[in-house]
Amino acid sequence: MSVKIIRCHPSRFDALVAFVAEHNPQPEHHIGYFGLTPEDIRLSLRMFNWPFDRAARLAVAGNRIVGVLAADIDKELGRAWLYGPLLTLAERASEAAHSAAVPPATRHSPPATTWEATADALYSAVAARLPAGIREHEMFVDTANVNCRAFAERHGFPAVGEWAIYFITPDRLARLPEATADDWDERFAGQLEALHDRLFPRSNYTLTYMRQEWAEKGALLLVVTEGDRLTGYFFGRYEEDSGEGYVDLVGVDETRRRTGLGRRLMLAGLSRMRGAPGLRQVNLSVAASNAAALALYDDLGFVRERDMIAFRRAIQE
Ligand SMILES: CC(C)(COP(=O)(O)OP(=O)(O)OC[C@H]1O[C@@H](n2cnc3c(N)ncnc32)[C@H](O)[C@@H]1OP(=O)(O)O)[C@@H](O)C(=O)NCCC(=O)NCCS
User: Fold this and answer.
1) Which among 54, 141, 190, 308 is least buried, having the fewest CB atoms inside 10 angstroms?
2) Å from CA of 61 to ligand 1 middle
3) Which residue is closest in CA terms to ligand 1's atom 25?
4) How much is the average pLDDT of 49-63?
5) 102-149, pLDDT tens digit by residue?
6) Prediction pTM value
7) 201 lines ligand 1 (CB under 6 A)
8) CA geometry: angle at 165 spanning 173 and 294, to 5°?
9) What is the tens place of the pLDDT at every residue in 151-176?
10) What phi and psi values does residue 182 have, to the nearest 5 degrees?
């Protein structure tokens, strides 16, 4: 079988979405950025910050898609996110020859039919088109995606963190007790900024962003206080289009831990979300090393869906 690397012509877009939807849910293929359902995948690809036909390359065998790699970019951050490589080829030439079931005498697979070689060919094709100024490449894959982990290692991507992905469904939410917390109050801006910086020093969420999402898009920014003192906060949101809610952050002052505030904040946020029309599930992700948070989410009945690993490679220009 010979495999060619080609651009993703718009006429192949639906076939690409179907290919990703078929394989991405499987842990051994899973790439975090794509999403799982055809709708999510279509949306994530349509939201790219640059023209998709420049950003993506397909591996095809005849007319059939057997692999994809795309890269979304943020020019300001100087970062590219690799959507892939997602390939349904065998890992090594020997396996490829074996799976092709050809007679042993003629069993010779050209290197380009293997996962490894095809992934590398896709990566060089995609990387060659990236605009100047991209200084980092990132990957986010299931820990069971051994091919991508080996790819990351081969290309010098250090691992930068492991994450557990959790979700909870409305039936489980309905069984949780009610709890309350206060809505955002500007009086606590200084304290929240200080607490947030201490607990999540590298977070993408700034106080300005959280306030804006709260004021303009109905995100949940909840606090618990003792008199004038802020002791904890919760930030989450509900996306009506997808029917999915997200717990983005929950944090409790270091001196007030293990007194039930984390649970209360989670229950208060979830109590607000569970009435949302069309809610399908509430998601969250958390560092796999965060024992306190893992225990809290397990205890609330969240289901641990996947374990993911993130890689980031610095690019010399
Ligand atoms: C995670 C966090 C919010 C928990 O807050 P908390 O107020 O200490 O938690 P609670 O007192 O409500 O504990 C609720 C349950 O969580 C679990 N838990 C909380 N802290 C724990 C710890 N250090 N070790 C083990 N389990 C823990 C327990 O099951 C606990 O129930 P229990 O006390 O009856 O055993 C808090 O540790 C925190 O702010 N961490 C830093 C920020 C962070 O990592 N947030 C989560 C990622 S967004």
Assistant:
1) 190
2) 51
3) 292
4) 94
5) 444 444 444 447 999 999 999 999 999 999 999 999 999 999 999 999
6) 0.85
7) no
8) 75
9) 999 999 999 999 999 999 999 999 99
10) -85, 150
Answer whether 289 contacts ligand 1 (Cβ < 6 A).
no
Q: Ligand 1 pocket test: which of 225, 296, 298, 299 has the largest number of ligand atoms within 8 Å of its C-beta?
A: 296
pLDDT band at 1 (very low <50, low <70, confident <90, very high): low
Q: Domains (ranges, CATH) in the chain?
A: 4-157 (3.40.630.30), 167-307 (3.40.630.30)
Mutate to test the pocket of ligand 1, among 258, 259, 282, 294 (most ligand atoms within 8 A of CB): 258
DSSP3 helix / strand / coil % (the chain, rounded to 5): 40, 30, 30
Please report the pLDDT score of residue 204 as a whole number.
83
Nearest to 10 by CA among 70, 68, 51: 51
Confidence of residue 202 (pLDDT cuts 50, 70, 90): confident
Q: Do residues 272 and 246 make contact, with C-beta atoms less than 8 angstroms apart? A: no
Q: Residue 190 has what pLDDT?
A: 97
Structure tokens at 161: 């963190």
Q: Are strands 136-142 and 79-87 parallel, antiparallel or unpaired?
A: parallel
The token pair that represents 175 in the structure block: 């069984």
| Structure tokens that stand for 1 in this block | 């079988």
Instruction: Walk across the sheet containing 4-7 and list its strands.
Output: 4-7, 56-61, 64-74, 79-87, 136-142, 303-314, 159-168, 281-287, 244-252, 229-239, 220-226, 182-183
Answer for the pair 203, 240: CB distance below 8 angstroms, yes or no: no
Residue 301 contacts residue 175 (beta carbons within 8 Å): yes
Ligand 1 proximity of 287 Cβ (cutoff 6 Å): no
Among 33-47, 99-113, 236-250, 275-289, the minimum mean pLDDT is found in 99-113
Please tell me if the CB atom of residue 159 comes closer than 6 angstroms to any atom of ligand 1.
Answer: no
Residues in the chain: 317
